[in-house]
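Open question from group meeting: does this chain pack into something compact, or does most of it stay loose? Before anyone orders reagents, we agreed to write out a predicted structure and look at it together. Recording both the input and the output here so the notebook holds the full record.
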Amino acid sequence: MSSDTTGPAPLGESTRVGDPAEAGAYWCDRCGTSVDEGDHTACRAARQLEPPRYCGHCRRRMKVQVLPVGWAAACVEHGETRA
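Structure tokens returned:
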């Protein structure tokens, strides 16, 4: 699994999932707050079932598309993430 988000990952393989602090992220990809502030246990649990809503690098709200076989989330600055 790669943390590079410059190109799309094959469906079923996410390039950024799990702990908000992974891959040099500064922001939680679910709630949009700093990974250093508060407890993100609920965010990690929710991310097992739902796509990210915020870019973990720049905190921008992402365009999210839920597909029958997974999801795709796109940040205008950092590209697309799929699972």
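Observations to bring back to the group:
The radius of gyration is 12 Å.
The CA atoms of residues 9 and 43 lie 23 Å apart.
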